Amino acid sequence: MIRPALCGVAAALRGGAMPTVCLLVLAGGCSNSGETASDAGGAQAGEAGGAAGDRGSAGDASGAGGAGRSSAGRGSAGRPAAGAGGEQGGSGGDSSGSPDAGAGGTLTVTGVMPAARSIDAATSAPIVIDFDRELDPDSVTPQSLWAFGRWSGPVRDGAYAFSQDGRTVTLTPPRAWTAGDRVTVVLSHALAGADGTTLRAEGHSFHFTTATVASAMTFSEVGRMSTRDDDGDGGRTQAYGGAAADVNRDGFLDLLIVNEITADLRIFLNRGDGTGAFDTFTEDGIVPLGQRASPSDTTDFDGDGIVDLVVANLDANSVSIVLGNGDGTMAKSQDLPVSGEPRGVAVADIDGDGDADVVNTNADGDNMSILVNDGTGRFAEPGDDAFFDAGHGMQTVRREFGLGAGDMDEDGILDLVIGAHGIAMEGAGVVVNRGLGDGGFAFASLQAPETSGWQLAIGDLNGDGHDDVATADGALSNASPDTITILLGDGAGSAAVHQSYTQDIAQPFAIDLGDLDGDLDLDVVVSNYGADWQILENEGDGTIAFARAVNADTSASCAILVDIDNDGDLDAALVDEVEDVLVIMRQQ
């Protein structure tokens, strides 16, 4: 996924003084350095992937055991080890283990389709979830079972159907997902069985990515707009960061561009004619934010089925909650104080109640923040217990920067992956924090490559069904080269370095993943500050190789990958932070 990288996170990472160009390759993320975050254990085994029986979908590993919680934020006691690890699937699954279904009288997920962490789901795919017992249909609601495409937006208005004697529920979205989108499915602990049992307190989440059509990774410029006032004659906005979302619900993805100097969000509406053309922003499409707004991520905070946004404001030391109106406009709802210099932001249900919470990194604060949603889209100001160190006293972790989320231990609860910038290389590396599902996190593992994770993206890079990590490692000193690092996950909470790529890499401040050529593996786009964008083709095993470069007027700083013309492949939007120009690149 050439992703949420978030153009904003990259901006946060680079210090703000230098001009930057932002590449938003629609379907990745120029908005934040992470995905959703959460992970919890509990006695219930996690997601045994793949629908059961005659559907024969791929299996999905159940929760792995591992380290208990260590001085994590908000939670209380550490969790017990998860149920027996291994995959339990349908006829197409790898049944190397069997979860303890219904242990302790809990409703248990036994299979999901599309398979968790898969990257080849059809855009028309319904979501099928198997349980170990008959469901109470009244407990299945748009709040207890819903899904969200990072670019496609929330599905709370889909149709629910029950089968297999009430043990299987199918959620059919009313519209197709966009190609190359990362979809997160959220199940809350409010789900209940017909016998009165409920889903584990930690809830259950999983993600998958929709497939793209075959293409040649060749882009042509089809549009160019300014983020400045007065048709481009106004003062600088320092456009840096953004997202794609269908904010006016016409079936085409619009662009949400975050600006550092003017401290606002500017909305460019897709004309919806299939050409990739956009209208210029209007005054109605400007949303005030905090000083040096940058990293961002999308979700549905208030449960109304309309896309919302969270933005971290680096110099204001705050996070802004922006709610969508559904008519092409948005409005800021809250500014929440966090610690010093929030560099990354991610969204996930971290406490099992089914709504979207927020986690962010604080570089100057040397910590992380947890912001808990009350279910209506309102967040209380964080108290002391909302801040935690990514090392949890077990490892030295300094200056937390990049942030992403994935199910690194495959227990059906998403975990945090943090890129630590370090100080003089002390505390630098890539850290995995296992989510506990009670609002807290535990240290799981640390990889300390020679350079730091300024920004990172998460997805299955080698096709083994595990979440992997790609990091953009800007040099910390002359002794440490600029590097792109590929780390392969083991499905148990760790990721090991597979490749360090340095060819023509120069100050990489953003990285995104997406299947650009439609060959069912995730390619990599690197944004080199002061240089160009590099497209690195995945050889299928997670090894990347140079494919082509896209020149930047001044400096490439981030990428968002998304299908802007609804033709099934990934297109791109490039943002020049110096000229404040948004360049639309369409793949033919």
Commentary on this structure:
- The structure is a single chain.
- The protein is mainly beta and 588 residues long.
- It is built from 1 helix and 39 strands.
- The protein has one helix at residues 7-14; strands spanning 21-24, 60-61, 87-88, 109-113, 127-131, 145-149, 153-155, 159-163, 168-172, 182-187, 204-209, 219-226, 239-245, 254-259, 264-268, 286-288, 293-299, 308-313, 318-324, 330-337, 342-348, 357-362, 367-371, 387-388, 400-406, 415-420, 429-435, 441-447, 455-459, 468-473, 483-489, 495-501, 508-514, 523-528, 533-538, 544-550, 561-562, 571-576, 581-587.
- Strands 1, 12, 37, 38 and 39 form a 5-stranded antiparallel β-sheet that branches.
- A hairpin with an 8-residue loop joins strand 26 (415-420) and strand 27.
- The radius of gyration is 21 Å and the shape is globular.
- The relative contact order is 0.21.
- Residues 1-28 and 33-101 have low confidence and may be disordered.
Mean pLDDT: 84
Low-confidence stretches: 1-28, 33-101
Question: What characteristic shape results from the CA principal axes?
Answer: globular
Q: What is the quaternary state of this protein?
A: single chain
Helix fraction by DSSP (H/I, runs of at least 4): under 10%
What gyration radius follows from the Cα positions, in whole Å?
Answer: 21 Å
Per DSSP E runs of 2 or more residues, the count of β-strands stands at 39
| N-C termini distance | 18 Å
- How much of the polypeptide forms β-strand, as a percent range? 35-45%
Helix and strand composition category: mainly beta
Count helical runs: 1
For the sheet with most strands, the description reads: 5 strands, antiparallel
